[in-house]
Amino acid sequence: MKSIGYTKVFADDEAVGYGYEGGDDKLCLKLAKDVTIPGEGFHLAFSAKERNQVHEFHAAALRHGGRCNGAPGPRSEYGNSYYAAFVLIPTGIELKRSSTELPNSRAAKDCNGSVSACRGTAVFSTWQRAMLA
What we know:
Blueprint lengths: L6 E5 L3 E5 L7 E4 L12 E5 L3 H13 L3 E8 L8 E6 L5 E6 L4 H7 L15 H7 L1
Parallel strand pairs: 4-7
Antiparallel strand pairs: 1-2, 2-3, 5-6, 6-7
């Protein structure tokens, strides 16, 4: 969790919550008697403000037993500024960390003038937007 900037913000007998120091939980893991492991295609995504955070996440995941399922790099199929890394954890769940940060010299061109949308704001790919509609 450290590689994505999270720290433990609470813990009790039934759950542990992670988030930004001094804040509420952004990810809460709860104990359950009956658990259904998510099926094929499920992934858990974390946004990053900068591309170097994508690299840090990927390296940390590999150090802790994850398998590379997509090295850090641009993913033009999700947009001109999309940059991500994918890792499979031992349970088979895919974790992703992505950024929409662009180098300053390309920001205005690649974002069609919407620079603020390129500065770490989470974006959804076309299929994710369709799933939410």
